[in-house]
Amino acid sequence: MKIIRLPTFDIVIRIDGESGSINSSLHDDFSRNVDAYDHAINGLESLILAHACAGIDVASPAYLEGIETAVEAIANNTI
Predict the structure, then answer these.
(1) Is this prediction's pTM over 0.85?
(2) Residue 40: which domain range?
(3) What percent of the chain has pLDDT above 90?
(4) Within 10 Å of residue 44's Cβ, how many Cβ atoms?
(5) Which residues, in sequence order, are CB contacts of 74 under 8 Å at separation 6+?
(6) Residue 11 and residue 70: Cα distance in Å, rounded?
(7) Which residues contact 36 (CB under 8 A, 6 or more apart)?
(8) How many domains does the chain have?
(9) Which of the two ends of the chain, N or C, has the fewest CB atoms closer than 10 A to its terminal CB?
(10) Among 46, 44, 47, which Cα is nearest to 78's?
(11) Hey, what long-range contacts does 14-20 have (CB within 8 A, 24 or more apart)?
């Protein structure tokens, strides 16, 4: 099992073969109960996990910046 810890949003990815799991603080960062936000974050987490499983370097500075930009956009459009 491979574990990737990202320095943004406490993201931890566990990869076992071609599948894995992802945990983060993204659902905890906003204390509002907004279904649209949660659904969008679930989609983003799924994309990050899929990229990690496919071998993309999700720890690269450019990728981390993309995560942060996506989270900001999700928050701006749903909260």
Answers:
(1) yes
(2) 2-78
(3) 73
(4) 20
(5) 37, 40, 41, 44
(6) 14
(7) 78
(8) 1
(9) N
(10) 44
(11) 15/52, 15/53, 18/53, 19/53, 20/49, 20/52, 20/53
Neighbours of 9 (CB within 10 A): 20
pLDDT of 1 = 93
Closest of 78, 10, 30, 22 to residue 52, by C-alpha: 22
Percent composition of the chain: helix, strand, coil (DSSP 3-state, to 5):
45, 20, 35
Residues of the chain with pLDDT under 50: none
CA 58 to chain centroid, in Å, comes to 10
So what's the pLDDT on residue 40? 93
What's the pLDDT score for residue 17? 85
CA pair distance 63, 79, nearest whole angstrom: 24
